[in-house]
Amino acid sequence: MREVAPKITADQVRRSAHPALRPASPVGRQPVVKKGPGPSKLSYRLSRAWAKPMLRNAVLVYLPLVALALVGWRVVANDEWRGMIEAKVAALIEQVAARPEFAVRDVIVAGGSVDLQAKVRRILDLQPGTSSLKLDVEELRLRVEALGPVERATVQFDPQGIMRVAVVERIAVVLFRDAHKDLVMLDKGGVEIGPAGPRADYPELPVIIGEGAPQRVGEVIELLAAAPEILPRLRALVRVGERRWDIVLDHDLLIKLPEIGSIEALSRIMALHYGEELLDRDIAVIDMRLPDRPALRMMPEAAETYQIRRAVAALDGEDT
Amino acid sequence: MNFAQLMPHRNMRGRLHSAIKRGRLAVLDIGSSKITCLVLKLDPARLAEAARNDHLGTSLFGAIEVVGARTVQSRGVRRGEIIDMDEVCRSIRLALLNSEKMAAPKVGRVDQVIVSFSGGRPQSFSTSAEVETETGQVTERDISNALGACPPPPIGEARQILHAQPVEMSVDYQHGITDPRGMTGEKLTVAMHVLAVDARPLSNLMECIRQCDLDLAGVVCAPYASGLSALVEDEQRTGAVCVDMGGGSTSFSVFLRDHLICAEQIRFGGDHVTNDIAAGLLMRSAAAERIKTLYGGVIPTGADDRELIDAPRIGEEDVPSRRQISRGMLIGVIRPRIEETFRILRQRLVELGITDMPGCSIVLTGAACQMPGVDEMATRILGRRPRIGRPIRISGLPQSLSGPDFSTAVGLATYALRPHDELWDFEAPRALSARGRATEMIRWLKSSW
User: Fold this and answer.
1) Domain limits, chain B
2) Residue B320 clears pLDDT 80, i.e. is over it
3) For the segment A46-86, what is each residue's pLDDT rounded down to a tens digit?
4) A137 and A223, same domain (yes or no)
5) Which residues of A are less than 8 Å from B76 in CB distance?
6) Residue B213: its chain A contacts at CB < 8 A?
7) pTM of the model
8) Does the CB of B94 have a partner CB in chain A at under 8 Å?
9) In a domain, A205, yes or no
10) Is residue A4 part of a domain?
């Protein structure tokens, strides 16, 4: 056995002493209750009750929900509070919308004439600095497309704050003299572009007249394409009875085209014109309404002219 | 047997079934030195199917999973009996709350609990009866009648039946019938094993569980539970003795043909060894327990005298090396107690005639069997080489809880899997009173349509 003789301190003596010999604590001796570790009955019951999903859900989910609903109802039911909250929210939205990141900095219009672009800008009516959050791009597009000269438009707002508007302008192909004798420009689909100025401003555009004429602009274009030579002499195309065309050339020459096969009829006339200079003669009316029976009507003075022409030819010694 | 007396057991069975239906159950092994709580997650569908098909529980270990486990020091329990209810309740609360906390992600709160009862001087009785079958074919009614005809064993004053299991049924003296229903025969013989314990400690235990706000789903005799988990299936069939060497007492259970046929308690345990060391060497119990677990042994060897152990006297714990003893001296203190325990065990086994049983293996389990040399000592005294039985593996069981000292706790879990072994799982025989006849008629009508 190993002999060890450590120095025993007074503290050790005190600790190892019998409880009765220990110095009393300043507060007085407390009863020593020796209890094993473990939860008390109350904490045990509470923690087991807490383990029940029903109670836990009730406390953690339903109770806060009910409280929230009650508070929410109180707030909403009180007009003053609700007004206050609404004002606050509106102010907040305003504040966010007013940030420079959302401002429209520029409007770029592409396509169309300069006049049209100016018109588009005017109709968009965007001041620089307008918040993009308040703009409805689709509505702007419809507004642009509502303009007569605009066929299609796209409106885009890019993240750099630039409003890009691309327009496709309608091209005037005919003038239409309407019931009020005003000249109106029509595009190839017969859509009205807008009022035209004096007739002399548009020498290259044919004039069409008559009820139902604007719906048949396509036919007009086809007719004129079949006989481009008549264009300089053309005074007007008249829609008759909403079913067929009359072509009025200068010198009061009237070509009556049939309802069906008008292009063929016109081609025949042009063929005659090439061979016989039909259109240069003193003819008042070329009636092609019955394809198998074309008819010509002379000018009243045509016979006289003919006599004179023959006499002149006889004088010249020419046999006609 | 009087079925009316067994109503409390029948109620506990109902709670066990409801626990299985809910899929969660706790088991509490209340021992003298530690309390172990396991929270089990059950697969109700598999268990219900097995109950219908009358399977033995052994194929069902996959249907349970340990999701929470906790062992705490037991206070207020001596020799498996409660001496301080407040302390015991406190320990149970600690164990249960902690294991519930561990199980919380997988199962909710558990309410039903199966507990072990390791004290109360268990005593086994056997009783049997023979009845004529009513129709020449064995029906459930015949079995009920036979069980009812078994004479109640003389369990004595202030004793209570803890287990009552039909262990043997024979039809016309043909033995070894596991399920006689539907078999043809004139005579049905039923043998039953009845285990009785002291009623007062048992009711104290039940009161403790009640105070902890738990529903008692079963009370199992501790050696039976250890046998269920420490013995393998074949041992249970061919016959085995499971010796559960606990802290407060040593108990043993005898299994034969898949049934418990005997269980008894010897009131010596590991704590007595500690007390011997503490008294013999004038030490504090904690220090004695420490040197017992670290250096203790049973068989002396030549090297023991050279190995010195610090054995501080009472009051000298500050300087543990003040006194040193040899390991041989320690063994000299431990050995007589263990030897005595085994001698009593041998005497009991001889008295019961179990040593004459052929192929009867001995399995040591429990905390005290971990001391080196205990199996050697058992070989010398019992004349057979024992095996150290560890509990069967069930899924989710922590490694720290899979030693031989946890066989009882695991056995309780496996007991939950066999809810059709006991007498109270059978229907009570109907008395032929007027009311009985009326209910019988209703039953017959119900079963006909």
Assistant:
1) 1-120+199-231+390-449, 123-198, 270-339
2) no
3) 888 888 888 888 999 999 999 999 998 988 888 888 888 89
4) no
5) 36
6) 44-45, 48
7) 0.65
8) yes
9) yes
10) no
- Position B115 pLDDT exceeds 90: yes
- B91 and A36 within 8 Å at the Cβ level: the answer is yes
Residues 174-233 of B with CB under 8 A from A: 211-213
A-chain residue closest to B111, CA distance? A48
Per-residue pLDDT reduced to its tens digit, B84-108: 888 899 999 999 999 988 888 888 8
> Mean pLDDT highest for which of A11-15, A292-296, B230-234?
B230-234
For A36, name the nearest residue in chain B, comparing CA atoms only. B87
Domain over B123-198 is classified CATH 3.30.1490.110: yes
Interface A–B counts its CB contacts (< 8 A) at 52
Which pLDDT score, from 0 to 100, does residue B58 have?
Answer: 52
Q: Which of residues 10-49 of B touch A (CB under 8 A)?
A: none
Q: Which tens digits make up the pLDDT trace of B209-228?
A: 998 889 898 899 999 999 98
Residue B93 contacts A, CB cutoff 8 Å: yes
The whole-angstrom distance between A77's CA and the closest CA on chain B is: 41
Residue-level pLDDT at A1: 46
B322 touching chain A per CB within 8 A: yes
Residue of chain B whose alpha carbon sits nearest to that of A17: B315
Fold adopted by B270-339: Nucleotidyltransferase; domain 5 (3.30.420)
**Which residues of chain B lie closer than 8 angstroms to A53, CB-CB?**
108
The pLDDT, as a whole number, for residue B408 is 92
Query: CATH assignment of B1-120+199-231+390-449?
Result: 3.30.420.40
Specify the CATH number for the domain of residue A260.
Answer: 3.40.50.11690
pLDDT beyond 80 at B269 = yes
- Contact between A1 and B324 using a beta-carbon 8 Å cutoff: yes
A16 contacts in chain B (CB < 8 Å): 315, 318
Which residues, 6 or more positions from B278, have their beta carbon under 8 angstroms from its beta carbon? B284, B285, B287, B288
